[in-house]
Write a structure and sequence with these properties.
Chains A, B: Residues 118-174 form the Thioesterase domain. Chains A, B: Residues 11-47 form the HTH deoR-type domain. Two copies of one chain form a homodimer. Chain A is of the alpha+beta class. Chain A is built from five helices and six strands, in the order ααααββαββββ. Chain A has helices at residues 8-21, 27-34, 38-48, 53-70, 109-122; strands at residues 79-84, 88-94, 128-138, 147-157, 162-172, 175-187. In chain A, strand 4 (147-157) and strand 5 (162-172) form a beta hairpin. The longest helix of chain A is centred in the N-terminal third of the chain and has 18 residues, at 53-70. Chain A starts with 7 loop residues before the first helix and ends in a 16-residue tail after the last strand. The first copy, chain A, binds a DNA duplex through helix 3 and helix 4.
Chain lengths: 203, 203
DNA sequence: CAATAATTAGAACCAGGTACTAATATGTAG
DNA sequence: CTACATATTAGTACCTGGTTCTAATTATTG
């Protein structure tokens, strides 16, 4: 093995570090910093699975684009296909390009949450319904193109004002991908005062 | 002037729009969409001051890099203003028209959740970080125009892979409006398999 | 010493351009 | 109708930052 010019694994580690803290470095510059030929640099990149400069920039650019695309989700998430007020409800939400991380195709958590939350709120038959708290589990990741079917069940109610417990399960086919317990605050709408929060029913 | 092949200013406007909604388009593709020669496309880009594809990608990549400097400025909802990996982070998110119920001006829960969730994920210094579960409370409702300041603290970590507990508090001014405990699954990225979920870290 | 691993060299090729020159429409004003 | 101006297209040379492939040259080690 090499002894003078720094052992290979060590050099590769350095290469990794250099690129990590400056992704815009060219192979040309790397030869200067690591004192090896450009071919060696390229072999190293290959072995380490590091793409070329342009590909690295492209990936970063895509990531920054994702940020912009993720914001404009205002309306109620998912399509409600069944609703029995104060009892249960079902909604469908298909994962599209704008809902996933472009690199992995995995859906962003807040979209899955949003569908469930929207449904939990919709199922409550009050002028105003806001999520007070929630306890949620992402059972498995959801991929681009998958159809999420959320089912909500009202587990308990306390009077015309007060709180309601709603349980939501989200499925892709037979598989459960998400589960959550929502505590929904219900009000007639006279005042949306303190000690409570998020979300009302219908727009 | 041209009459058949669509007047120049109109074509340039279209070009601008196409690039705006898909910055990754090549001149080659633009010729197909606008039905003019590649030279015309390039003259148009010149006149409009639109740089070439690679330059556009580079700029996007740079922007995403120096927003928080260092890579981990992910798919964060809200603007990250401080980030100490594996320790803590702060982000700001202003509630605008598109985030509220039009009738009441109350912010929809999933936006508040999204900010907190994004930050909880961003603060974890791993290739992939996904929300496994969360326990959240909406303390009080947030109104249109209010600035939400989310603060995340890593409470515990278990090795390089495994789970991390992150606590997030969101404030409007002095008031706490949201609080959540997130269990984040961390992985090196070899496989984003089962039994886990949402959200990854860096690209 | 021969076999193996690591490194270097070099040439061909590629995408997605820039820069520049020149020819060819297409109008429009006089 | 002609002259001139503006638009559009064509074509070539060149650039960066690579990939791919073949081959030669150094170690290194068993």
């Amino acid at each position: 093995m090499v002894i003078e010019r720094l052992p290979k694994p060590l050099r590769q580690q350095q290469l990794l570090k250099i690129i990590e803290e400056n992704p815009f470095v060219t192979d040309q510059e790397l030869t200067r910093q690591l004192k090896v030929s450009i071919q060696t640099i390229r072999l190293d990149r290959m072995e380490l699975g590091i793409p070329e400069l342009r590909e690295r920039m492209k990936q970063m650019a895509e990531r920054s684009l994702d940020q912009v695309r993720s914001l404009p989700l205002d309306e109620v998430i998912g399509e409600v296909i069944d609703l029995q007020l104060d009892k249960s409800g079902i909604s469908i939400f298909e994962i599209r390009e704008e809902h996933v991380f472009s690199r992995t195709g995995i859906a962003r958590g807040h979209h899955i949450f949003a569908q469930a939350n929207s449904l939990a709120v919709a199922v409550i038959n009050n002028e105003i319904a806001l999520t007070a708290s929630a306890d949620i589990r992402f059972v498995r990741s959801v991929q681009l193109g998958e159809k999420c079917i959320a089912k909500a069940y009202v587990r308990s109610m306390s009077g015309k004002k007060g709180k309601a417990k709603v349980e939501v399960f989200t499925y892709v086919g037979e598989e459960m991908v998400f589960q959550g317990n929502f505590l929904i605050y219900r009000s007639t709408g006279e005042e949306y005062s303190e000690g409570v929060s998020q979300h009302e029913n219908r727009d």
